[in-house]
Amino acid sequence: MDHFLTSNLFFSYMNCRKSQILRLLNKTISVDSFFYNTYETPNRIYKEIFINNENGWSYPWDINFEEQGICQKVEVYNDFNSAETDLMKTLGDKLEVYIWIRNKYIPHMKQTQSHPDGIHSITLTQFHNDQYQVVDYPFEHMYSSDIIKAAFNNTPKEIRTLTYISLDNYYQDSSAAQRYNKNFQEKILNSRDEFDSYDALILKFEKKDNLEQLINRSIQFLGVISLSRALTGIFMESNQYSEAAVQGITEISKMAEIMKNYFLKISVNPKLFNKEQLIEKFSKLKKLEINFFNMMELEILTGIKTEMKKNVIEPITNLKVLGQSDTSVLIGWGDESGEHQLIDYEIYINDKFIGSTTSHQYLIDNLNPHSQYEVSIIKKQLQQKSDPVSITTLTEKILTSGNLALYKPVYASSIEGEEFTFIHVIDNNPSTRWSSQYTDNEWIYVDLGMIKEISRIRLHWEGACASEYKIECSEDALTWKVIKYVQNGIKGVYEVNNLDIQTRFVKITGIARATIFGYSLWELSVFN
Predict the structure, then answer these.
(1) Against a cut of 0.85, is the pTM above it?
(2) 71-166, what's its fold?
(3) 130-163 per-position pLDDT tens digit
């Protein structure tokens, strides 16, 4: 749950203040019960997004904190000067404070191209050396008092407020839980015949009127669908609904998220647009929605829980070696049938289980040089498994020259999302990259498999680069030695040459970011 409440989906498609309060509450109490009312019918979402022109962050989610005794303490002030004494005291009591700001005065709001005259909520968590620590996930920044003052004072007078959360009267009893569950069931049962918005969307794509706007609206629509189903699934699981029903709504969330990401790619590269494929996907999503409703209607009205179907799990396709080194192998495969399913892939070496993944790639390490291995993949959906698919591979002889980092294991402090995982810096693909979370203290390192002599290190930074960082080496990944300390780092290729080092691990440690985003690296190469 912690991971979900810090996901881009959560913070992009929910009201800023609600998401910030839920983030805080999740540190101390269970927030599952707040999601009893988050199932939104496709027709209502369509109306809000396509007719009322709402965005995900302005969607009117009905999440009520007060009904569980959670109190928002709100004080109104004429200006920031009159509020500052109370603000200091509240922060001194280790409480987070929420304020409304005018976007154009906050640097990260300008950099994310938010409307300059828009109003937004941010969280203040600390004050030190005339600077406030601002948390506005995924951004964390220290801003001077002058910046916060201008952003606060230029909001409408009625919302120049300090808000903090009190849990003094928080309660959660069995009668409340029963009431929430009853309300949830009534909302589900009232959603019959609320799915024809999918047909309206299909019709829009058949006509292709104002395609750019249609794509942008569809991104918002699918983001709210995905978040709604994910939150509802959390509530259902905590209230012991059937495994089949929880899986059903989670599949809807996952497919909507996949479609949303596809639309995001189309918005950047219109050549990817395929009308027939999109119409097919919307039809499939509608079918999943109706199947879920029918399952829940039966479960609510009769108490009969749908059993998990014993489906035949189709094996993966096109298993192949994407690259190998002397101590590791990168494999990849296809699986169209698992696009929106809850799928894990189990990895075996010579019939020995070594790990699992939800990705369609896996890097196998700790292998012996110039040795043959049989790699097998078994697809798993809940407790059901496919037949294994196998391939034989041969590792290289010990490599002492060339790019010694190619196809080697990589480890990082964080990733921005699955599309930006750390394996991309060694995959020999110039169009993939690693991207960290949006904080300064992030790192990434590569394991060369054994101690080797190196003479050159090359980094290829994306625009979101490090302005200050260290390049380090180690023989054991415990004790690190600084090779190069870089200040005033810029995007593009940076090399350290004429090295004469024996090492196994090479690490990039970020100290300061050049942008509000995380660190983003196309390539980490180590040569001899």
Answers:
(1) no
(2) Cathepsin B; Chain A (3.90.70)
(3) 999 999 887 888 999 999 999 999 999 999 999 9
Query: Which pLDDT band, with edges at 50, 70 and 90, does 226 fall under?
Result: very high
Q: Which residues pair with 487 in a beta bridge?
A: 468
Using alpha carbons only, how large is the chain's radius of gyration in Å? Answer: 26
Strand-pairing partners, residue 377, are: 347, 389
Q: Tell which CATH architecture fits domain 410-527.
A: Sandwich (2.60)
Q: What is the pLDDT of residues 86-110, one digit of tens each?
A: 999 999 999 999 999 999 999 888 7
Task: Write down the CATH number for the domain with range 317-394.
Answer: 2.60.40.10
Is pLDDT at 518 greater than 60 in this prediction?
yes
Listed in sequence order, the residues at least 6 apart from 406 whose beta carbon sits closer than 8 Å to its beta carbon are 323, 325, 426, 428, 525
Count Cβ neighbours within 10 Å for each residue of 141-175 and write b for 16 or more, e otherwise.
bebeeebbbbbbbbbeeeebbbbbbeeeeeeeeee
Q: What is the DSSP string of 11-32?
A: HHSS-HHHHHHHHHHTTTS--G
Number of other CB atoms surrounding residue 481 within 10 Å: 11
Q: Where in the chain is the domain with CATH 2.60.120.260?
A: 410-527
CA dist list (Å): 116 to 25, 58, 101, 306, 515: 30, 16, 11, 50, 19
C-alpha to C-alpha distance for 438 and 176, rounded to whole angstroms = 38
d(CA 87, CA 78): 14
